[in-house]
Recover the amino acids of this structure.
């Protein structure tokens, strides 16, 4: 209880100093070892009760927005990075340990220009995760993915395309296994 109280007070203080992190309430848990940062014209919006565990890194860069909705959970050592995009996490969603959600890719199609000098591919970069989803530990979600409500992603999967409501997916790249009943 002592760590929770200290964490709550620290986060409340930290958020009050950063107007780009908006909370609908202070009824949430963010472990003291986790980091939520905004850069440039970006924001993080927390809607309701959430639980962010140990050593989670959330970096939201230029012109980006992260929305985390009510009763969602982000497991230890997960990373969420957004740059010039929107990342939406629905209500009652579980993101397991070590999950990585990246919303940007570098362009690399011109061989006469260094990859690092080709800027960011902005054609498909938003990520949408619906309500009541479960993203298994170690999964990776890449730019442009949209997961419908109730989707289950198997541990260690690499999700490179979108899936409809109640799909169960797994593999590298993730493929449809079945639909939830």
């Amino acid at each position: 209880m002592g760590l929770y109280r200290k964490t709550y007070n620290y986060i409340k203080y930290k958020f009050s100093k950063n107007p780009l992190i908006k909370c609908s309430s202070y009824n949430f848990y963010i472990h003291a070892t986790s980091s939520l940062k905004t850069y440039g014209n970006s924001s993080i919006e927390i809607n309701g009760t959430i639980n962010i565990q140990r050593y989670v890194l959330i970096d939201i860069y230029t012109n980006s927005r992260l929305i985390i909705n009510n009763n969602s959970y982000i497991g230890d050592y997960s990373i969420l990075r957004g740059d010039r995009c929107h990342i939406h996490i629905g209500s009652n969603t579980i993101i397991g340990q070590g999950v990585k959600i990246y919303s940007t890719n570098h362009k690399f199609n011109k061989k006469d220009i260094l990859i690092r000098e080709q800027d960011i591919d902005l054609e498909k970069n938003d990520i949408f995760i619906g309500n009541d989803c479960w993203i298994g530990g170690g999964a990776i979600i890449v730019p442009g993915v949209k997961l419908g409500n109730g989707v289950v992603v198997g541990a260690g999967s690499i999700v490179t395309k979108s899936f409809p409501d109640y799909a169960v997916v797994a593999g590298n790249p993730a493929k449809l296994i079945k639909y939830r009943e």
